[in-house]
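Tokens as discussed.
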């Protein structure tokens, strides 16, 4: 796994997916969406609602890969092992959450939608990753910088 999943590949793939997510969000906000509402509803909003929550964790992966890019390989590979365990759990909970809040009253207000779950779990993943990286950085004898 260490030869296939490198710092550079994780950085580039997460960067591309983060840019794709930002483009999808910005495409929703263009004048074209307000000029031809049906086009936007059919092609953009439905796609963003179904695919967008699965792309949100890549923003956290991009931020962490940016931080660990110049650090020692031991720190990156420790985080990579952590991510290999945590990300399937994150995606399991994203898949299990409803696409939208259905119902009325208090139950609809308290329901966590797929997008909200993806955002909350990504923030938790980011905080845990930063904690792990900080701990690993300070426990290594030579510090954390270098290749």
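Sequence:
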């Amino acid at each position: 796994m260490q030869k296939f999943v490198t710092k550079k590949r994780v950085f580039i793939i997460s960067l591309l997916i983060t840019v794709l997510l930002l483009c999808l969000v910005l495409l929703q906000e263009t004048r074209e969406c307000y000029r031809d509402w049906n086009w936007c509803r059919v092609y953009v909003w439905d796609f963003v609602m179904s695919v967008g929550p699965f792309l949100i964790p890549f923003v956290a992966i991009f931020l962490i890969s940016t931080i660990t890019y110049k650090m020692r390989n031991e720190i990156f590979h420790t985080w990579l092992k952590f991510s290999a365990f945590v990300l399937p759990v994150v995606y399991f909970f994203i898949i299990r959450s409803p696409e939208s809040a259905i119902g009325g009253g208090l139950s609809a207000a308290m329901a966590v939608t797929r997008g909200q779950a993806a955002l909350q779990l990504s923030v938790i993943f980011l905080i845990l990753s930063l904690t792990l990286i900080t701990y690993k950085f300070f426990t290594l004898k030579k510090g954390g910088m270098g290749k």
